[in-house]
Amino acid sequence: AWSPEGRSILCTDVPNHLVALVSLAEPDKPQEIRTTPYQEYALHLSPDGTHVVYVSTEAEASGIYVASFPSFAEKRKVSLGPGRFPTWGRTGKSVFYLSGDGLVEAQVQTAPHIQIGERLPLFKLGGVGPQRFASTADSQKFLIMDPIQQQDLSSADLVLMVDWPSELRRQ
């Protein structure tokens, strides 16, 4: 994950359970941030660079966590169950992640302490396999990669969901 100012990259060495920060000015001198007995991956820094959201295997199933950065001294579990592909909303006040077959938004307060608020299932996703997503700056629209099965290539469609909140209200 890139730092907000674009001068360093937050990396993980999953087999060795290591989190490191690599400065573009000194790429041959990574700064070890943390080593744990479990795996931590898919790290993303908050828009202000003071917190990180990530997946950790410290619980029974991989869960989504928010922690202070770079200390990791304060952390809270975001997901109620397993989660994957976490990312920050552009304001830094919410975290989006995949849980089960849907996209979830969790409200996050980082100051003065980390607090996790309401977790709102946004919508279900179709298809199989890993689904990646990105949100617009206002977190009102999402671009979602939905893998196409090999046999479906001849009839592949692009589906653009517009005004998805009204679709939720109708259900």
Number of separate strands? 13
Largest sheet: 4 strands, antiparallel
Structural class: mainly beta
Please give the radius of gyration in angstroms. Answer: 17 Å
- What proportion of the residues form beta strands (DSSP E)? 35-45%
Helix content: under 10%
What oligomeric arrangement do these chains adopt? single chain
Low-confidence stretches: none
Number of helices: 1
Which geometry do the CA atoms define? globular
Measured between the Cα atoms of the first and last residue, the distance is: 36 Å
Roughly what is the average pLDDT, rounded to an integer?
86
- What pattern of helices and strands is seen along the backbone? EEEEEEEEEEEEEH
Across the major sheet, the strand order is 4-5-6-7
Could you outline the blueprint of secondary structure elements for this entry?
Elements: E1 8-13, E2 18-23, E3 31-35, E4 40-45, E5 51-56, E6 63-68, E7 75-77, E8 84-88, E9 94-99, E10 102-109, E11 115-124, E12 133-135, E13 142-144, H1 164-170
Antiparallel strand pairs: 1-2, 2-3, 4-5, 5-6, 6-7, 8-9, 9-10, 10-11, 12-13
